[in-house]
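Try this one yourself first.
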């Protein structure tokens, strides 16, 4: 089996998760990329990625070496072609807390001289998490944890991968507030609200996914990865697939609580094929509505057999994505 691929978003409890993996799998079975010359970057990555610039050679070496865990501060799309989608993992944190903690870390450990307002407008600002995960829908990833729900997340992770990684609480910010969240300076609040919209939506979706995983585990049914991608007045489409099966998912559409249609998710999705999803990417669905949606109509897409929700929207006249 390919290694677990961990996209370590900065200041999301990723260090604790990484060290737990090393404790469980053993240091020799873990490979890391934290940038060229970083002491945490494995020699293998330093040689093949930053030296030879040959990701194919890295993939072959990982397969032959018995590596069980690969991760680092990397873009998900950079390494996604090397792994099965079900092996891709990450943790997401509320963008306010992640941003402030990241700022304080940069000041404390990297000598950052700018103020918080300067960091807001940079690549390390409050859109950092969605930027690192761009081009990889989190609904297609094998596991997405939530930092604020770390113990719940780790329980889901251990169940999904049939392992028993220990819980650790390391690399904590000494400036972390006790008993509450971080507070932004008043001058940063408006620009933060503007810049953090995508990451706020990402955090909300990560919480919904975790809830759905927990519900599936509690009820004992197979979790389905899926999402509604686009919705218009006359149609919607998305994707759905089982984690460990090539059986097509039967997807049901409801409008205002009334079943409209059911279909198998078998349409071609080339972008997902590049992420090595099951069924070679033939996991899409497209519903053509019998009548145009009206403003305020409630649209829900679910797995027919279990009722697991894949997406729901309140229709607005402008097309929405999700």
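Now uncover the answer:
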């Amino acid at each position: 089996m390919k290694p677990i691929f961990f996209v370590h978003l900065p200041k999301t409890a990723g260090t604790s998760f990484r060290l737990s993996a090393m404790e469980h799998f053993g240091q020799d079975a873990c490979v890391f990329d934290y940038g060229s010359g970083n002491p945490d970057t494995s020699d293998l990555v330093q040689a093949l990625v930053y030296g030879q610039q040959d990701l194919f050679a890295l993939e072959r070496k990982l397969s032959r070496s018995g590596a069980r865990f690969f991760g680092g501060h990397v873009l998900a799309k950079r390494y996604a072609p090397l792994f099965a989608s079900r092996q891709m993992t990450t943790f997401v944190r509320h963008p306010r807390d992640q941003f402030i903690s990241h700022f304080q870390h940069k000041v404390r450990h990297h000598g950052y001289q700018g103020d918080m307002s300067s960091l807001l407008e940079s690549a390390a600002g409050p859109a950092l998490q969605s930027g690192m995960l761009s081009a990889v829908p989190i609904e297609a990833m094998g596991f997405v944890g939530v930092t604020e729900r770390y113990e719940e997340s780790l329980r889901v992770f251990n169940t999904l991968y049939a392992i028993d990684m220990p819980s650790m609480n390391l690399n904590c910010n000494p400036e972390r507030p006790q008993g509450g969240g971080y507070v932004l300076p008043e001058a940063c609040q408006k620009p933060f609200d503007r810049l953090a919209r995508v990451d706020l939506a990402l955090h909300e979706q990560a919480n919904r996914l975790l809830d759905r995983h927990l519900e599936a585990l509690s009820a004992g049914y197979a979790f389905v990865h899926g999402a509604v991608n686009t919705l218009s007045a006359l149609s919607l489409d998305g994707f759905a697939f089982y984690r460990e099966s090539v059986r097509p998912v039967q997807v049901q559409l409801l409008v205002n609580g009334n079943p409209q249609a059911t279909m198998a998710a078998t349409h071609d999705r080339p972008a997902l094929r590049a992420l090595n999803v099951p069924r070679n990417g033939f996991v899409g669905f497209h519903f053509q509505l019998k009548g145009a949606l009206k403003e305020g109509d409630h649209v829900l897409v679910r797995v027919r057999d279990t009722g697991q929700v894949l997406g729901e929207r309140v229709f607005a006249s402008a097309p929405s994505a999700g």
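Discussion: The radius of gyration is 21 Å. The mean pLDDT is 93.
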